[in-house]
Design goal:
α10 crosses α11. The longest helix has 13 residues. The chain is an alpha/beta fold.
C-alpha cells in the first residue's frame, strides 16, 4: 500500500499570517496522524515563511509515524536534519526566492555534491530521497549517489491530467520502473490531488509514498481534514 505523508506547510502559512498559534501546527500534525495519515512532511525554507526551524524541532516528539523533512541541503538545513534525525530527508534543489519547488535535481551535474550530502545523512541513519524529474539518465545517475529513494516531481503529470492527457503519466511509469530496477524506492509529490491521485497510483508500480500538502489542505476547507485524509487513503489502496 502506498503511504500518505501530509505536508503541513500551508497550516504554518495560515498561522504565520495572523501571528500567535492558530491554527496549532502541532495539534494538526497529531490529528492528521490520528485520522490515518502514515507520515508528516515539512519543508522549512531559509526565510521561514511557513515552517519555522523551531517547528521542525517541536514536531519531533509529535510525529509518531514517518517524519519527512524536505529542503535544499544548505549548511543550516543539514545541521537541522542531523539534529532531529527524521525518518527521511528529501533533497530539493529550490532556491530561496522560489514560491514553491519547481524543478528536480540534475543528478549528473551535481553527482559529487549529492554523494557527499547523502553520505552525511546516511551515516546518521536517515533515509534519503532525491526530488527528480522523469529523465531516465537522471534516474540512473540518482542510483549512483547512494540515495535510498527518489521523489518524482509530478507537476507536469498534474497539468497533463487536468487537460485530459492521461498519456502524460507514461514518462512517470517508465521512470518508476527504471528506478525500481536500480534498487531505488519511489516516492512522488507536487500538485497531486483527489482528482488525479487514484489514476496516478494505478499507473505507477512500486509507489511507496506520496507527499501532499497544498491540495489536501485546500480540499479540507470544503470537506474537512479528517474526511479528506481518509478520501486519499481510500484512493491509495489501489
Amino acid at each position: 500500500m502506498t503511504k500518505l505523508s501530509v505536508n503541513i506547510n500551508k497550516i504554518a502559512t495560515l498561522r504565520n499570517s495572523r501571528g500567535g498559534n492558530v491554527p496549532n501546527l502541532l495539534k494538526v500534525a497529531a490529528d492528521v496522524q490520528d485520522f490515518g495519515a502514515q507520515g508528516i512532511t515539512i519543508h522549512p525554507r531559509p526565510d521561514q515563511r511557513h515552517i519555522r526551524y523551531q517547528d521542525a524541532y517541536d514536531l519531533k516528539s509529535v510525529v509518531t509515524t514517518e517524519y519527512n523533512i524536505e529542503g535544499n541541503p544548505i549548511p543550516q538545513f543539514v545541521d537541522l536534519v542531523l539534529d532531529i534525525k527524521p525518518t527521511q530527508v528529501t533533497l530539493v534543489p529550490d532556491s530561496e526566492e522560489v514560491l514553491t519547488s519547481n524543478a528536480g535535481w540534475d543528478t549528473v551535474t551535481h553527482q559529487d555534491y549529492l554523494k557527499e550530502v547523502i553520505k552525511t545523512f546516511k551515516d546518521a541513519g536517515i533515509r534519503t530521497s532525491i526530488f527528480i524529474d522523469t529523465d531516465l539518465a537522471l534516474i540512473e545517475a540518482a542510483a549512483t549517489t547512494g540515495a535510498d529513494r527518489i521523489e518524482l516531481y509530478t507537476e507536469q503529470f498534474a497539468k497533463d491530467f487536468e487537460a485530459g492527457n492521461t498519456a502524460g503519466v507514461k514518462a512517470y511509469r517508465e521512470a518508476a520502473i527504471r528506478a525500481h530496477e536500480l534498487g531505488l524506492g519511489i516516492n512522488a509529490g507536487h500538485d497531486l490531488n483527489l482528482d488525479n491521485i487514484a489514476f496516478f497510483k494505478s499507473e505507477i508500480p512500486n509507489l511507496a509514498e506520496v507527499s501532499i500538502g497544498h491540495a489536501l489542505i485546500s480540499e479540507s476547507i470544503y470537506l474537512g481534514i479528517e474526511n479528506v485524509v481518509n478520501m486519499y487513503l481510500d484512493r491509495l489502496k489501489g
